[in-house]
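The instructor's notes for this session suggest beginning with a concrete chain rather than abstract definitions. Hand out the sequence below and ask the class to guess, before any prediction is shown, which regions might be ordered.
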Amino acid sequence: MRRVLVVALVAVAVVSCVPSFGSPSSNPQSSPTPRPTLDSVAPPSSSPANSIVLGGEDCLPPSPRIASPTGSLGVLLGTAPEGSPTKLFVSVTPLLSAGPEWKLIVRMTGSGDLVFSAQNTDGTKVQARMVEPHSLGSSLDVFPGSEWGVFVIFPTSGCWKLRAQRSNEYADVWVLVLP
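After discussion, reveal the predicted structure:
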């Protein structure tokens, strides 16, 4: 019963931290350091409110999910270093759990091959089992960059930093993984 309660509480926390496309984030003033906003990563055809705060270290906050233009599961927005032109978009199911292999669709600007890794705040590190170019059309086609299918297993629950890197540029997505 306790595990069900913990999973339910984590699910509520995840949903409450995931703003929808065009809606303001949950209290952007509570972030200890200023974060880039959506206006620097949104596709050119959109003009959402630029008050969505991007993900931060230790999932404070987790990376925001915006609605996909095609109505799919939504897209997580990556956080690049301040002043970087790099843009990262990740499409994945809203509720990730530890144990099974997950396929993420990753779209990133820049040049060169994609290198993908993940690190839990407890120090656990994993590399993607497979990173393959994704040449078929997808719901992420409206965003800039090249696209890959990334296969990864999260061995433990908690806050995970997903890092995508091409040449000298990188960006991170912060996600909560359930038990």
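Then share the key points. The CA atoms of residues 39 and 47 lie 8 Å apart. The chain is about 10% helix and 35% strand.
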